């Protein structure tokens, strides 16, 4: 897929896929979208001492970085195991041009950013003490064949239904639900009525939340 770098309204960058006419992130702000959807309405709502996160998909690695940034604000008496699926990894040039470490004041973030992207696929790598990352190169529907611990938190960050409608239908949500612990949380930028109904059918308690800038609503769903 041909991709190009674009700058979003909050100054952070994203990738744009010409053939699909689709951004990896909201043009209103890549960073503020990630922090609002996956940190404020995701990670910050989980209190387990060991948090297993499943991300669909890895994309530019921004969600990993904002998760580490939030983890460093805590007393770090818990462990995060982060599992991220991606079918089309970005290349070295794109990693360099995105330069997400520049968005954070912490001088260690350049090294952390590089370590995230240099981490071998299919292997669990300790990025910082207490934070383990495993990147898995696969189609999302291969999830059924992937051995994971019970997942406490899902970052459902697939491309939009306009370009990949099959990723927002029941079969994939069933696969995700099967990997989740009871009371596990799924958070996504989407607020589609069909997604809410699917999740309710799969025995999730679904709540509409205020969306990130530029989007009125988003979804949180707790597995019952």
UniProtKB/TrEMBL annotation:
The keyword Acetylation does not apply. It comes from the Bacteria. One of its GO terms (biological process) is methylation. The keyword Methyltransferase applies. InterPro entries: MnmC-like_methylTransf (IPR008471), SAM-dependent_MTases_sf (IPR029063), tRNA_MNMC2 (IPR047785). Keywords: Methyltransferase, Transferase. Transmembrane segments: none annotated. Coiled coil: none annotated. Residues 142-223 form the MnmC-like methyltransferase domain. GO terms for molecular function: oxidoreductase activity, acting on the CH-NH group of donors; tRNA (5-methylaminomethyl-2-thiouridylate)(34)-methyltransferase activity. Gene3D superfamilies: Vaccinia Virus protein VP39. NCBIfam families: tRNA_MNMC2. This is Peptidase.
């Amino acid at each position: 897929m041909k991709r190009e770098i674009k700058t979003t309204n909050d100054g952070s960058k994203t990738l744009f896929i010409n053939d699909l006419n689709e951004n990896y992130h909201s043009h209103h702000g890549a960073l503020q979208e990630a922090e609002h959807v996956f940190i404020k309405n995701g990670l910050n709502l989980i209190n387990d001492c060991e948090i297993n996160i499943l991300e669909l998909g890895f994309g530019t690695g921004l969600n990993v970085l904002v998760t580490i940034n939030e983890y460093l604000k805590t007393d770090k008496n818990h462990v995060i195991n982060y599992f991220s699926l991606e079918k089309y990894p970005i290349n070295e040039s794109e990693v360099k041009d995105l330069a997400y470490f520049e968005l954070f004041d912490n001088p260690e973030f350049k090294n952390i950013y590089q370590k995230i992207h240099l981490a071998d696929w299919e292997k669990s790598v300790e990025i910082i003490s207490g934070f383990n990352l495993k990147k898995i190169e696969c189609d999302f529907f291969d999830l059924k064949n992937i051995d994971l611990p019970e997942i406490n938190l899902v970052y459902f960050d697939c491309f939009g239904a306009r370009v990949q409608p099959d990723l927002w239908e029941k079969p994939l949500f069933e696969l995700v639900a099967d990997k989740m612990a009871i009371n596990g949380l799924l958070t996504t930028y989407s607020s589609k009525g069909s997604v809410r109904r699917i999740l309710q059918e799969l025995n999730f308690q679904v709540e509409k939340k205020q969306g990130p800038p530029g989007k009125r609503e988003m979804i949180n769903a707790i597995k019952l």
